Amino acid sequence: MKLEMKDSPGQLVAALKPISDVGGNIIAVIHQREPDSTDDTLSVQIVLELPEKKIDSLIELLHKADVHIQRIGHERLLYRRTVILIGHLMHTDLSDTVDRIDTTGFAEVSELAMSMPAINERSSSRLTIKSVTRDDMDRAMGILHKVANEKDLLLIEPLEEMA
Amino acid sequence: MKVAIIGMGSVGRGLIEMIATKDLGMIVTGIADSKSGIINEHGIDLQKALVRKKETGLCGDPKIKAMEVVTNAKYDVLVEVSPTNAETGEPAISYMKTAMQRKKHVVTSNKGPIALAYKKLISLAKKNGVELRHEATVAGAIPVFHTIEHGLAGNEIYAIYGILNGTCNYILTRMADEGLTYEQALLEAREMGYAEADPTYDVQGIDAAIKLVILANTVWGNGVTLDDVDRTGINLLTPDAIRLAEEEDCTIRLIAEADRRTDLLRVSPRIIRKNHPLVVNGTLNAITIVTDMARDITLIGRGAGSVETASAIIGDLLFIATCYDRRS
Fold first, then answer.
1. Which pLDDT belongs to residue B326?
2. Could you tell me if B64 and B18 are in contact, meaning their C-beta atoms sit under 8 angstroms apart?
3. How far apart are CA B116 and CA B123, in angstroms?
4. Could you give the number of structural domains in chain A?
5. A94 and A67 share one domain
């Protein structure tokens, strides 16, 4: 979110405090003084993680602290992983495969690309999965493993950095 | 240094050629193939042996068996380069044991014995005060064990992962570059001599898994076996899957990975960024070693080939020559 506040001592801390008050986690603070700014306000961009449904209380708290919210970019799910599934995807109910991830509440299939060469031939698909945390992503992968096993699909995962 | 060589397939012949043409300070006193053997304590005429093998299919006298060469020839190091038997490791295991009981060093490219009986063999080597070296068993010419043992000495090795099977890498490269089906790419690999008539070992990831077991046992001594490896091959991959990966600037490669921190042992096709250092083309191999001090080290090179494998064997032989008395 992009915030605007008075350019006076203590203001930035005052703006950040409500974030921790609602249980949020600050990932980055980008502070750039506009070169053509003549007034005494300060613009700050903050990247943060918030527990679900806490955004409204944060907005309220920031208003009370006299901080003006210029923009809120909303990305609920932070982790993204792309996998490929090969097999009889349609015959094994692709929408069920997707639902098994989507109904978890902590992960969802956000993109699906597919190619079906011919009836009765194995098809290939690329799924992009998003989740809130790394742990959730691992849990979603566990579910996908299980589904792939049940439906005799080949699951190809990305190589994660091991360092 | 006196050397006896068991096995005269492509690796054995490449090794004999290099010993014959390069000044390595080695005398070959015994050679055996599956049907014949030759012993000469003053040194075998290697060119003659190569010609004889080519013309008759035998390197020496059919009355002399390999075990006789192992037991009777005068040598400092036994080089065991007979074909891999992944089920029992025999007869190579018996050759190695016999040589080590005679207090002779052993150098091998044979994956069977090292994957199946490493613990027993290495303790026998220690008991007899000799070396058992097997650089050529994993990733051909790439000196992965020398790098870990000497170059990275003092480092804790967290994980090792990479491309350990050139046949699979060739097939995947051709599927990606030319849009070939798996079957077409396999056929081409056979025509090029990169794939066996029965490609099961390569394409189902068994060969890569055996190499992973050898790496894990050598580096961590954890006694894992082939059954401990979670293994998926490349034989069910489709050109469409590779194209779908390419749309995201990625490709698919068969990756073998061993992680000591999570006890992970896995061989599987993986989506990998095209500009990742492990994405090598054709039959090349590539290995990344993850360590505490040096962090990541990636080695790339030829994973197979007659002279390439001989390079790894000669590296082991000369290491032994440097560490032990050359004149003995």
1. 52
2. no
3. 14
4. 2
5. no
Chain B interface includes A115 (CB < 8 A)? yes
Task: Indicate the pLDDT class of residue B45, thresholds 50, 70 and 90.
Answer: very high
Domain assignment of residue A102, given as a range: 79-156
Mean pLDDT confidence for B156-167? 97
The reply to whether B211 belongs to the active site is: yes
Q: Does any domain span residue A161?
A: no
Q: Are A85 and A143 in contact (CB under 8 A)?
A: no
Domains and CATH numbers, chain B: 2-139+307-323 (3.40.50.720), 147-303 (3.30.360.10)
Contact between B240 and A156 using a beta-carbon 8 Å cutoff = no
SS (H, E, C) B154-202: CCCEEEEEEECCHHHHHHHHHHHHHCCCHHHHHHHHHHCCCCCCCCHHH
State the pLDDT confidence band at A37, using cuts at 50, 70 and 90. low
Are A47 and A105 in a shared domain?
Answer: no
ipTM: 0.85
Of B241, B248, B295, the CB nearest to A156: B241
| CATH number of the CATH domain containing A11 | 3.30.70.260
- For the four alpha carbons of B140, B145, B146 and B147, in that order, the dihedral sign comes to positive
Interface test with chain A among B271, B279, B287, by most A beta carbons within 10 Å: B271
| B276 burial via Cβ count (<10 Å: 0-12, 13-18, 19+) | middle
